[in-house]
Amino acid sequence: MKNLFLLVALLAAVPALAQTTKKTTTKKATVVKKAPAKATTAKKTTTTTPKSTTVATPAAAPVAPLTQAEAASGLREALTTGVTKAVAFASEPDGFNLNDDIRIQFPPDAQLVATTLGALPLGKQAVEQATNLLNRAAEAAAPQAKDIFLNAVQQLTLTDALSLVTSSQKDAATQLLRKNSEAALNAALRPSIVQSLDQVGANAAYSKLIERYNKIPLMTPASTNLTDYVTKETVDGLFILLAQQEAKIRQNPAAQSTAILKRVFGGK
Fold first, then answer.
1. What are the boundaries of each domain within the chain?
2. DSSP, res 92
3. Which of 12, 38, 55, 87 is surrounded by the most beta carbons within 10 Å?
4. pLDDT per residue over 180-209, tens digit each?
5. What is the distance between the alpha carbons of residues 28 and 101, in angstroms, rounded to a whole number?
């Protein structure tokens, strides 16, 4: 009897087991296919290095040797420029008077006059005033010297122009002009000095001092004639200024103001 009940129970359990089995499903593994990664293309920055272009520098044309004619022309040009500037400087107010290189003092034979009277009351002031007037006379006459000097420059014979250009003496052309023309320049300028000495009152002031000096007992009388002395000192002063200008042209490219001056002196 017990076996019968056991059999019935087993039969009843069979449908339940079948139902349970149907509910149990095996889930398929879902494989998610990943989209293929996009290839990242790195853009290459291409730097184009320009090819260095070497430009051939044309060779400088050879400079032709300086000729005798060019050297002579350059020297005359240098002297002409120098004379123009020297006379301009000398003609300015105090061009002689305040320039220690060319200031005119009492004549050598009248130095004792200046020393003696300078030691007396008011004598020093009178001597200084007369000295200033000597220089005023030179300044007044200087403009008249320009044409005289320029004419001498044009007449200058430069047979040794090439050696003068390369000379170690920076005033070589001025020295040659002085050697050849100084006496003629003095003679030509003398009338202008006579006139200027009177115009500025130099003759009157100087004569007054000399007369005062000549009254001193036991003194050798001094001369009152200033013309030859002041003429010589004026010409001498102009030559000094001219020499300075020539040296500047030779040494300073900025002073080589014309093509011929650059050609002759520019290579130094």
1. 68-265
2. S
3. 87
4. 999 999 999 999 999 999 999 999 999 999
5. 122
